[in-house]
């Protein structure tokens, strides 16, 4: 008999076992419809908000879990960790795997299909993604140490963000590195960018496609290459856009939105600053026809409580005063404020179409709490 108690021929095992895919959880409760799955998670002590949708095959596994209102998690996605914080209005696409001890996703952020977060990590590894961010499909993020991504930042598809570099033996003189990564607010990272450990990218920077990033990238600049180098910065990049040009841009963007709606069978008409959209409501069994009105405001508000035409949506190029926001909320009317990058917390069908269309041009809105006075 062997000294190991007869286990000499047993397969290799470890003290810590963690299957890459939570097959058992998927088989046990992943198939449940969303209402029953939410009930199951609440019974486990998870804090699940209102209007949450959990797709078929999706599972959440954690010790301390909070999921905000109106979160949507698509099918065959799993989220696993010790502490999980998912803000309101977050969308996570199908077949995505988020596996890290500490995960925080800010309100309004969208993570596309087939994004993978995992790999070599430590007990204090964490991924923090700010508000109104977007991570495109097929991106691989390895938070060996802390990875923090600021608000309003976009990460293109096929990107690699690695918190470690190691393979060959450190005892033989090869480099082994584990370090944090910080990506600031309003950063744009194009497709197929590789970000190495220890990288710091400041607010407003743009990283060109196929770049390799290491070290510090200053704010409000364009950096490209292998390795990435700054090729343009203020005042050339980004350029200053005059108010008159901004007004023309916004008018063209909304006119384009109307052409999209017209192509889908809606009747669209413009009279001065008012866009009228007529068509079937997307809700309900009978899809009755209704009329939406969008008011466009292109001048600074000189009065904190001006008279505005009756509308379902107000799109303003300039900051909307607090008092007017409260009045619009009481109507109720959804407002979109381009200068402040804010919108009313509530929405309606036309407002969501306008906000979605403006995203094409890099305009994303943070939801502000409606103040009804």
How does this structure look, described?
- The chain is of the alpha/beta class and 373 residues long.
- The chain folds into two domains: 23-233, Hexapeptide repeat proteins (UDP N-Acetylglucosamine Acyltransferase, domain 1, 3 Solenoid); 243-368, no CATH class.
- The protein is built from five helices and 36 strands.
- It has a ten-stranded mixed beta sheet.
- Mean pLDDT is 92; it is low at 1-8.
List the defining traits of the structure above:
373 residues, 10-stranded mixed β-sheet, UDP N-Acetylglucosamine Acyltransferase, domain 1, 2 domains, single chain, 9-stranded parallel β-sheet, 16% helix, alpha/beta, 31% strand
Please render the helix and strand layout as text:
Elements: H1 23-30, H2 34-43, E1 47-48, E2 53-54, E3 59-61, E4 64-67, E5 72-73, E6 78-80, E7 83-86, E8 91-92, E9 97-99, E10 102-105, E11 110-111, E12 116-117, E13 126-129, E14 134-135, E15 140-142, E16 147-149, E17 154-155, E18 160-162, E19 164-165, E20 177-178, E21 181-183, E22 188-189, E23 194-195, E24 200-201, E25 206-207, E26 212-213, E27 216-217, E28 221-225, E29 228-233, H3 243-263, E30 267-271, E31 274-280, E32 289-297, E33 313-316, H4 322-330, E34 334-337, E35 342-344, H5 349-359, E36 366-368
Parallel strand pairs: 1-4, 2-5, 3-6, 4-7, 5-8, 6-9, 7-10, 8-11, 9-12, 10-13, 11-14, 12-15, 13-16, 14-17, 15-18, 16-21, 17-22, 18-23, 21-24, 22-25, 23-26, 24-27, 25-28, 32-33, 33-34, 35-36
Antiparallel strand pairs: 19-20, 28-29, 30-31, 31-32, 34-35
Overall average pLDDT: 92
Low-pLDDT stretches: 1-8
Strand arrangement in the largest pleated sheet: 2-5-8-11-14-17-22-25-28-29
> Rough shape?
globular
